[in-house]
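Follow-up to my earlier ticket, as requested here are the two runs.
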Amino acid sequence: MAIYDIDDMDLLTKDVYTRLRKEPVQSQRERDTMKQIHVDRRFYDAVGEEWVGEDFKVLEDVANEGEGNVMVAVFFTLKEGAGKEDELGKWYREEHVGLLQQVPGWRRTRRFVTSYLDLQDGKAKEFLALHEYAPRNGLGGEEFVTATSTAWTEKIGKEVVQSKRRRVYDLYYSFGPAPRDLQSLSSPDAIETESTDGATKTFPVSSPRAGPGSGGDTRCPAIESFITTADGVDLPYRLEGSEDPNAPCLVLVNSILVDYGIWHDFISAFQSLTDRKYRILRYNARGRSALPQSAKQPVTVDTLTSDIIALLDALRVKKASIVGVSLGGATALNAGLSHPDRIESFIACDTNSFAPPSNPKAWGERIEVAEKEGAKASLSTTSGEEPIVGGELAELTVRRWFTQESYAQPELQERIEKVKQMVRTNSLPGFNDGVKALYEYDFRDRMGGFRGKAAFLVGAGDGVLPKTMKGMAESLGEGGVQLEVVDGAGHLPMVERPREVAQFVATFLDG
């Protein structure tokens, strides 16, 4: 049984819902699947009565992910005659629910009646009661027998109820607003799938586009999709790794001007070192694409941090570790300071604890370079050409980011070129908005009070940052934290030295 709670039954008659069940949104695969199964879809309206226990847990809340729940569903049809509905309601209110509340583990009781939508379609009127219990409960015990064997209960059964069905369910899965089920993709029978709009794709272990495994030819399942934030920004993500839904989650946060492809070689090394024990989440931060009109507030590091929490909520991840680089490093640091209840640990790479006063001018000049070039490209199949960052700023940027030694190594040329193309094709309006997060932030006053698990990492060739981050590491927490300096790397160590970075991250997480 799948249950969906909605606020307004009228929504089921409107395009926001009905379009999901027809072309072009509904896929051929869904149509073929639905032909093979019987779906007994029923609509019920709440009758306004709900009883909630003190230990009731809202299972939709991410904090309660993994909590068990037992649901008893009782369906009634009533005999004909005046007053039957009133008598049933009176019994619930004045006796039955009160006795059920004495049953160990009782959490909540709700009552429903067949919705007008089903009545209009000619379905019979039916009453439904949903009783929820903790996994360890007294169903079948003394208190339960007392609640279900009173004289009034027997009278209701004989004089009011025409038919009765009762089913007991254990909670199996709580849906969220974004796909996350890697477990089903670990089956050798699973196939690649793609939503009709191309925004969601699944890659089982048999797919060449699945994630890297723990070595050799092994692969791990992957999902590519997106979430939509409260202010209407779509954040594309890729989730891959362990198919265990309870496996620890590692979030990777990009620098500005790139997409989540910068982590590809790091992930290959990390999966091999950790025997694929982690779920890995990477995403394109706001600013990679042009922002919608609904995103009216200036982008700040706090905004980017709230995006991480939104991703964790959508994927129902209670706690995660974070590795971020550059602006992503500042975001990881801020997330660790601001959300210790959600961030298990973090590593901030090649970043600063405050925005240097020169940042607005420096980044403003870079925006001018891109605007002067005037490059355009079509960045999606649903829109025409739009301004992009272009080749001139891309060349200047990667020359700053990577060491000269890396340019001299043939095996790194392809990686550097990929990053250059990421920068070149970044939306210029998106860049203009996203870079504002680098204009003003300061975490220094909060760093001494940090009491969690953290570390810093920096490329040895990243200008003054090794010295700057040494001071950051010393000032975080009571006695400071470790700073790892990666030789042969500049601003994006996970691109230039992926295995060295992966080794440090793996050791840190297991420590």
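Run two:
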Amino acid sequence: MTRTPGFSTLAVHAGAKPDPATGARATPIYQTTSFVFDDADHAASLFGLKAFGNIYT
């Protein structure tokens, strides 16, 4: 079965080349983030579970 890729498929992969090491066709999506703390004390209170907030995803 051979199908010609549609416009959307071509657009999303435009300019992308397969990774030479892995052969991956598409750029991976990393579903992670980082958080900013007001200062070191703020970070310490979050990691010490003394304050509510985001520290890890």
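The only thing I checked on run two: The chain has a mean pLDDT of 88. Let me know what else you need.
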